[in-house]
Amino acid sequence: MSGRLPVRKTYKLFIGGAFPRSESGRSYEAAGRNVARASRKDARDAVRAARDAFPKWASATAYNRGQVLYRLAEMMEARAGDLAAVCSGRDEVEAAIDRVVWYAGWADKLPQVLGGANPVAGPYFNFTVPEPTGVVAIVAPDEPALLGLVSRLAPGIVGGNAVVAVASETHPVAAIELAEAIATSDLPGGVVNVLTGLRAELAPVLAAHMDVNAIDLSGADGDTAELERLAAGNVKRVVHGVVDGQSPWEIQAFLELKTVWHPVGA
Amino acid sequence: MSDVEKSERTAVPAPFQWEYAPAPEARDAVSLRERYGLFIGGEHVEPRSGSFFPTISPSTEEQLAEVAQAGAEDVDLAVAAARAAFEDGWSSLAPCGRAKYLFRIARILQERARELAVAESLDGGKPIKESRDVDVPLAAAHFFYYAGWADKLEYAFPNRTPRPLGVAAQIIPWNFPLLMLAWKIAPALACGNTVVLKPAETTPLTALIFTDICRQAELPPGVVNIVTGDGSTGAHMVGHPGVDKVAFTGSTDVGKAIQRKLAGSGTKLTLELGGKAANIVFDDCALDQAVEGIVNGIYFNQGHVCCAGSRLLVQESIAEPLVAKLKRRLETLRLGDPLDKNTDIGAINSKAQLEKIRALVASGEEEGAEIYQPPCVLPEKGYWFAPTVFTNVAQSYRIAQEEIFGPVLSVMTFRTPEEALEKANNTPYGLSAGIWTEKGSRILWMAQRLRAGVVWANTFNRFDPASPFGGYKESGFGREGGRHGLEAYLRFE
Question: Do A249 and B458 touch (CB under 8 A)?
């Protein structure tokens, strides 16, 4: 026996900007580590934290949201080594960081590209602006563990939504390492919440939750019919996004369009 | 201030009663057949189901015609016809060709405007001045607008390659039969899809006249198919494996059932569902204009409007004079024959809807709200409901939470803009909202915070094909109108 024994990290959930253990006191083993196994109660707590965080984040200026996302990229760059250790490696980390930077730049361009002024036939000023839809649940893909989560998370939050993400069941550690970058990135607590645990246990709770406005099933394995059925309870927006790609249309899937009319007259 | 002084300040003189001679629109602009079949593959065909049901005029209860009750086999045939038309040429037709067909349809709608307006008012009960000045011109405008998109789709969505979806099943409601048909068919065809459309059970006539417009436009057979029937026909369409897209406008309950049914199927879905719009009036508004806007917001089309301003939120300091003015204005509304050009309030669309309105109004009275209806004589035959205002309404009352879809306004008050917002956003719906104030910065502040897809400031119930329309929350997803309305009928490579 020689050399120093390393201090192991205890992996926890990320809810409301804090890192609690699951209220259920459970964990499960994934990739050789014990990871918190979130309960339905944890999922509900995460939704509440997201709902509380939503108004402030949604009303932040686009310039500010863009900067906060860029700050997240800075934090990820600083942790690139740690992140590389929990995903497929350095290339994936770099792609994930670049993706965050790419989406950061969209924050203050969305209304110009996705909205517009409408030439109605009458004396009205009429314009359409994109707005966040509210609380978004994300079922993250298993592969690539880090880049897949980032690819769904970034378009979710850049438009002003708050997110509850169910991490990959088989590779949850990347999500928690990412959460630690998020926690230090100026993103207000609760804008991103990360649950680790069993997808089959958590996804249906979020799909059926009446205070979740949209659900991204990009990482839901196999048959998503039951989740989609549950989503109909409050007419949730169901998103099947691109797992490894980037596009402003991925952002639009999480947005509503609001049209405002006003008469024009002297 | 004493009560006497208060009542003097808010007293509004009784309206002068104008006597108008009847000014009925001639019915002979429309010649109806006794019985209508289905429109499948460019042909009028007898339903395989063999069954028909009557469509009646809600203002007189007379039977106007018999229409087919399409069964599962009929829906199969319609979907097959639409599929064949999609594959045999419509999807590969030069886009400018699609555009020209749509321009033709727009023109024929304008040329046959009188006939369509009369048919719409006969079958649906809405005042002729609305069908003539709103429904028909807007329907034509929708075809005109989307005609222009047909050959410009690649400019609508940068960096994406648009492709049609295939066969669209479209189910429309009874409140704006022809206009909803235009909202559904025009963008679908512009994007290269073919359609099977089901008009509402109580208002099929203008859609059946539209089949003749398709013939006049020489639209290729099967591009547009019209099947009539009730909810069971709609259910066959929604569950049909040959359908690539479902577009539904109607109640939130049915919308949820459709979303459940399509779960996991990959069928693209857009929903335009119910609403319970707040019309918010601040103390600095132009009061008379606001009263006109409130009346337009809730009594237009007898309140059969999903985005109707059915909850009036008034700033407390002007509640008394505003309600007094509103009641006085209500006394001047003319209820009666929908075909009379002076009529403001027509007939309730159906007996079932009248019963629903009555039940909800009864619940309002039971829960403790104060009801006001202007003196007005209801015709002996037909389905009628007097314009109604409820004051003393609490947030929790059914009349403040549930969609009534009738000429019934619930009045509540607020003190601060924050309170108005809180109350306005306090329903599961999020379709539309109104703001009345002279203060521009307040309009924009409110408009940003209202959770609704359409916000009308110092106006209400305006529509235009260039303007996206659709809801937040349980009012549905997807937009109709404008560039955004194209997306519902496209997939991207």
Answer: no
CB A250 within 8 A of CB A241: yes
Contact predicate B304/B387, CB 8 Å = no
Q: What's the rounded Cα separation, in Å, for the pair B10 and B302?
A: 28
Q: Is B122 helix (H, G, I), strand (E, B) or coil?
A: helix
- Interchain CB distance below 8 Å, B464 and A126: yes
Q: Look up the ipTM and state it.
A: 0.95
pLDDT band with cut points at 50, 70 and 90 for residue B19: confident
Q: Are B437 and B286 in contact (CB under 8 A)?
A: no
Classify residue A5: in a domain, yes or no: no
| Residue in B61, B29, B31 with CA at minimum distance from that of residue B132 | B29
Task: Please tell us whether the domain made up of B278-457 is placed in CATH 3.90.1170.40.
Answer: no
Closest Cβ–Cβ partner in B457, B473, B475 for A261: B457
Q: What is the pTM of this model?
A: 0.95
Is A4 within a domain?
no
CATH code at position A122: 3.40.605.10
What is the residue extent of each domain of chain B? 27-273+475-492, 278-457
Whether B428 and A133 lie within 8 Å, measured CB to CB:
no
Count: domains in chain A: 1
What's the topology of domain B27-273+475-492? Aldehyde Dehydrogenase; Chain A, domain 1 (3.40.605)
Q: Which residues contact A73 (CB under 8 A, 6 or more apart)?
A: A97, A98, A100, A101, A104
Distance from CA of A147 to the nearest CA of B (A): 23
Q: Which of A121, A249, A261 sits opposite B456 (nearest CB)?
A: A261
Residue range(s) defining the domain that contains residue A184: 11-263
Give the number of C-alpha atoms closer than 13 A to the C-alpha of residue B246, restricted to the C-beta side: 29
Closest to B246 in 3D by CA, of B1, B488, B466: B488
Contact call for residues A76 and A83 (beta carbons, < 8 A): yes
Alpha carbon distances (Å) from B233 to B124, B211, B226, B251, B264: 20, 19, 11, 16, 22
Judged against a pLDDT cut of 50, whether residue B177 lies above it is answered with yes
Q: How do residues B190-236 score in pLDDT, each as one tens digit?
A: 999 999 999 999 999 999 999 999 999 999 999 999 999 999 999 99
Residues of B labelled catalytic: 272
